[in-house]
Specification:
Elements: E1 9-12, H1 27-52, E2 59-63, H2 78-98, E3 104-109, H3 117-122, H4 134-144, E4 155-157, H5 158-164
Parallel strand pairs: 1-2, 2-3, 3-4
């Protein structure tokens, strides 16, 4: 606040991942995912809210999937799914609570796997069939520069946001040109 004079945007991007089944998930890892993913989203949002509510075009954007209670997303990795959907529930609840005050609270999720450090570390075989982080950044920029009162409580998909803005060629975002990209989890 002292340096910039206010807060206009909060991006809840921090996340811990463990795509393990229930018996293979130590409680320490479960607690870490809940603490970073769900609790971190709530805590950062709560801390920024007083400042965001004074901004002229305030946004909270959380990198979390659209809510989908299909059991197939929970069965293989219930602990991770709970933590990511907890982030999405924060979007839904905060949008309902503060939307009438002009605060946009939305989520953004990639259509494909993204070439992040987590993918490189835990799923190196998926890296060459992923898109670069720039696709999410470009979509986030479009969401965060719209008038906050125009959309809140939405669960955006990066590719859809860009298509709506007129982008038709997604090849520049491919890690490997012309390679088939992997769909991300949580999307049907």
């Amino acid at each position: 606040m002292e340096t910039f004079g206010g807060i206009d945007i909060l991006v809840n991007n921090a996340s811990a991942i463990s795509l393990t089944g229930t018996l293979a998930t130590p409680m320490k890892r479960y607690d870490l995912m809940q603490s970073i993913n769900t609790r971190g989203t709530f805590l950062c949002s709560q801390a920024c809210l007083p400042h965001l509510l004074r901004a002229s075009n305030p946004h909270i954007l959380t990198i979390s999937p659209p809510l989908n209670l299909n059991p197939r997303w929970f069965g293989p990795h219930v602990a991770y799914a709970i933590s990511k959907y907890g982030m999405s529930l924060c979007t839904l609840g905060l949008a309902a609570e503060f939307g009438d005050q002009g605060l946009a609270v939305n989520s953004l999720w990639p259509r494909t796997t993204i070439a992040t450090a987590a993918v490189e570390t835990f799923f190196p075989q998926a890296l060459s069939h992923s898109r670069t982080p720039e696709i999410v950044a470009d979509a986030a920029h479009l969401v965060l520069t719209q008038v906050s009162r125009s959309a809140t409580g939405q669960f955006f998909i990066d590719e859809d946001v860009l298509r709506d803005a007129g982008v038709t060629d997604f090849e520049p975002y491919a890690v490997t040109p012309r390679a088939q990209v992997n769909p991300d989890i949580f999307l049907d």
